[in-house]
Design brief:
heterodimer, A: 293 residues, mainly alpha, two-stranded antiparallel ribbon, B: 268 residues
């Protein structure tokens, strides 16, 4: 066969192969997709044995697959967003390389993301991070991430504060973790524990931490004061047609003076409902609260 | 000694003529290409993956060189009948075996050396390209001298595999030698399981046999410190020294047996 004829034959064969491939992909698209979504071996220890010394490289491959699976389902407009392989892929990745920090941390974010952005499995996210803690017990980041899942996804501020507190106790943990734990307890209304933590932080060598602790303790004081005042406000409502006000309560001799927060700013009272709050003009504003959904 | 070094140099020249260094080009292309594509596929783990890939590729390419050249070192001379011309010269059989082995070790050393330089070059480029804020999240520095300990142990493992291949090639055909060497490589990586076999079986003699096999077969999994190094955990100097000593002793054992078999072999 001469060269031009050979080149023409090669080109024709290649074009035919590409054509057939395109027709097949169009006709059997679902089948291809289902094959892509299969995970033949789910046992991390089995894969570990099969890969001999190359378990870290296999972990990289599974990590890339986990990202592709998550991203593919998240961005897909046609496919049902199932994310059913995400947890097994992350489990395989972290079994093959137990020190794969990003797989634990990003994996937990992916798993805890609510549908349609993720599978909405904070329980699996926490389990994955606990696996990370078992592999590296002094890695403060995993404790921090569990706290984050409790805070954002499960709205359990007491548990979040507990995990932030544990994170702060790990070696090399940053000094902002303890204030975070204390802040969480304040927001979760566990004021006694929060006051205890903030009082400890008040002894810190860092000025910004001491300032933060002092402000937070004033916020807790303000919350306590509001709790004391609120029953009296509702017990002595203003005459019909008049708005709730401090003036009315002082005139009625329920209060001697207008109440102030720890910064000397008067507390606010809602004229319609009588709800007592810290004033928006106060340095204590905004007050700690639950995350918004 | 001079005879051994002459044979070693001729083995090295032959491997260069056989285009063995081509694998270095493949290695370099693989690494450079991966550094560009991996960044698109992973969530900020490109340096870790390049390290894993680089160390694994060094190990795999080296394994192929060790097995496929190692098995032909002696058997090729016998097949070509050039062994008669060689042994007619003032070369003893042990010198021939040791020279052949030293030549392949030299080839491996050059290969591993060049692959190490290529790996460090890509990592230096990645380190230079990455913003400082991202670098703080890395487990270990991009250009980490500690990786040399993993590369060194890979090299020692490869010299051990070469000795295994050479040992089999002194009495077996190339295909069988390749199969046996590869088999021993796999067994060597499962060797650590034999140590704890008594926890799996109840039979004392079987557990005892497993323990004996654990000590007799080469313990190759102990040469693998790739994961530790990539995550920035230190591999102690004591461990490196012990593992090197273990490799040296095992290689000496294999070469002694290979020399013994080859010395008694009848080529008529």
């Amino acid at each position: 066969m001469k060269l031009p004829a050979a080149i023409a034959t090669i080109a024709a064969c290649l074009a035919a192969a590409i054509g057939i491939q395109l027709v097949r992909d169009r006709a059997y698209a679902e089948r291809t997709r289902e094959t892509e979504r299969m995970l033949y071996v789910r046992s991390g220890s089995a894969v570990r044995r099969l890969t001999l010394d190359f378990d870290a490289l296999a972990a990289d491959v599974y990590w890339i697959r986990a990202i592709q699976h998550y991203g593919g389902d998240r961005l897909s407009r046609t496919r049902q967003r199932r994310y059913e392989l995400l947890q097994p892929l992350l489990d395989l990745t972290t079994t093959l390389d137990p020190h794969f920090t990003i797989a634990y941390r990003f994996g937990a974010i992916f798993l805890s993301e609510p549908p349609p952005g993720g599978p909405g499995r904070p329980d699996q996210a926490i389990a994955l991070l606990n696996k990370g803690i078992a592999a590296q017990p002094d890695k403060w980041q995993y404790f921090h991430d569990i706290a984050f899942v409790y805070y954002w996804r499960l709205r359990d501020l007491t548990a979040a504060a507990d995990w932030f507190h544990r994170a702060a106790a790990q070696p090399n943990a940053p000094n902002w973790l303890e204030p975070l734990a204390a802040g969480m307890l304040t927001a979760g209304n566990d004021r006694a524990s929060a006051r205890m933590l903030w009082t400890e932080i008040l002894k810190s060598d860092e000025k910004w931490l001491r300032d933060s602790a002092a402000r937070s303790l004033r916020q807790i004081d303000a919350l306590d004061l509001i709790d004391q005042l609120q029953p009296y406000v509702h017990k002595f409502p203003p005459p019909k047609g008049e708005a709730y006000s401090w003036d009315w309560l002082v005139r009625k001799r329920v209060l001697k003076v207008v109440p102030y927060d720890g910064t000397g700013t008067p507390l606010d009272i809602d004229p319609g409902s009588g709800t007592v709050t810290v004033s928006k003009s106060s340095p204590l504003w905004p007050m700690p609260s639950l995350p918004s959904s | 000694m001079r005879t051994i070094s002459c044979i070693a140099l001729s083995v090295f020249r032959e491997s260069v003529r056989d285009r063995v260094p081509y694998n270095l080009v493949i290695f370099a292309v693989l690494l450079i290409a991966s550094s560009f594509f991996i960044g698109q596929l992973t969530a900020g783990q490109d340096v870790k993956i390049i390290k894993d890939l680089g160390l694994a590729a060094t190990s795999v390419f080296g394994l192929f060189i060790a097995i496929f050249i190692g098995i032909g070192l002696v058997s090729k001379e016998v097949e070509r009948k050039s062994i008669y011309a060689l042994l007619a010269k003032p070369i003893s059989r042990p010198q021939l075996v040791l020279g052949k082995y030293a030549g392949l070790v030299l080839t491996l050393a050059v290969n591993v050396g060049v692959m190490t330089i290529a790996l460090y070059a890509v990592l230096a480029y990645m380190t230079w390209m990455t913003p400082a804020a991202i670098k703080t999240s890395w487990d270990a520095p991009g250009v980490d001298p500690a990786m040399l300990s993993a590369l060194f142990l890979i090299f020692i493992e490869l010299t051990l595999i070469t000795a295994v291949a050479l040992f089999f090639s002194t009495f077996s055909t190339p295909i069988l030698s390749a199969a046996l060497t590869f088999g021993l490589y796999i067994v060597g990586h499962f060797n650590a399981d034999l140590r704890n076999f008594e926890q799996v079986v109840q039979s004392k003699p079987v557990a005892w046999l497993a323990r004996v096999l654990y000590h007799i077969l080469p313990d190759l999994s102990a040469f693998d410190v790739k994961t530790q190094v990539v995550h920035g955990f230190s591999v102690g100097g004591g461990y490196l020294a012990l593992q090197t000593a273990y490799g040296a002793v095992y290689i000496t054992l294999l070469l002694s047996i290979a020399t013994l078999i080859f010395s008694r072999r009848d080529f008529k």
